[in-house]
From TrEMBL:
Keywords: Kinase, Serine/threonine-protein kinase, Transferase. Gene3D superfamilies: Transferase(Phosphotransferase) domain 1. It comes from Paenibacillus bovis. InterPro entries: Kinase-like_dom_sf (IPR011009), Meiotic_Drive_Suppr_Kinase (IPR052396). GO terms for molecular function: protein serine/threonine kinase activity. This is Serine/threonine protein kinase. It comes from the Bacteria.
């Protein structure tokens, strides 16, 4: 752990180039040194790991992005739970986390890997646990949850301290049980990336419309 921390602070952070282009889109990773590996990028940060420290992931927040301390606090409140990672260290703009092994639901659909109902139930139970810890699960979707050995894991908890309601997971489950599982229970096939991105963009438009409609109804 001490060697990893030294590697991150003295070398890695001085070389990577990441930036936020649009608040509703993943940040752009312009450069990172080898042999570091990019695991993924969200709207606030990018996550990397080094092959020599395979049990750890380093989450680096883009310049100007807030929320690191809140995320560290969420990890503290969650404590130890099999469906969540753990936070080992919080720096000024990075976190060192337990690296979860698995495949995101987004990648499962892209690669044609079956998503079993057990994984969905596991995620439901993990979200209930978060609520019991006085948290409000937020931004839970196909890119933020994964499967490992058929069980569900939650990868990103950075927005669990937000107070507003979020319907992403409940909407995902409705689509899963209504459209995905009736087909995937019999056979699975890979979905092209452009199809999945089209669904993601369409969902964003749909949710903005529903939110505006609900707000207008409250005002009237």
């Amino acid at each position: 752990m001490e060697q990893l921390l030294k590697q991150v602070t003295e070398h890695f952070l001085k070389q990577i180039i990441i930036e936020s282009i649009h608040p509703m889109e993943p940040i752009q990773v312009r450069y990172y040194p080898k042999p570091w590996v990019l695991l993924g990028a969200g709207n606030y940060a990018a996550v990397f790991y080094h092959p020599d420290y395979a049990d750890y992931a380093v989450k680096v927040y883009a310049y100007g992005k807030q929320g690191l301390q809140e995320e560290a606090e969420v990890y503290r409140l969650l404590g130890t739970h099999p469906a969540y990672s753990r936070c080992y260290y919080a720096g000024d703009n990075f976190l060192i986390l337990q690296k979860l092994q698995g495949t995101t639901l987004y990648e499962c659909m892209k690669k044609g890997i079956r998503i079993p109902p057990q994984a969905i139930r596991d995620i439901d139970l993990a979200l209930d646990y978060a609520v019991s810890r006085n948290l409000r699960p937020h931004d839970v979707h196909g890119k933020n949850v994964m499967i490992a050995n058929g069980r569900g894991l939650i990868v990103d908890i950075s927005d669990f301290s937000k107070q507003e309601d979020c319907r992403m997971w409940s909407d995902f489950k409705k689509a899963y049980y209504k459209f995905y599982w009736p087909i995937a229970s019999r056979f699975v096939f890979p979905l092209p990336g452009f199809v999945l991105e089209g669904v993601r963009k369409g969902y964003q438009i749909y949710r903005r419309y529903k939110n505006r409609t609900a707000a207008a109804a409250l005002r009237s």
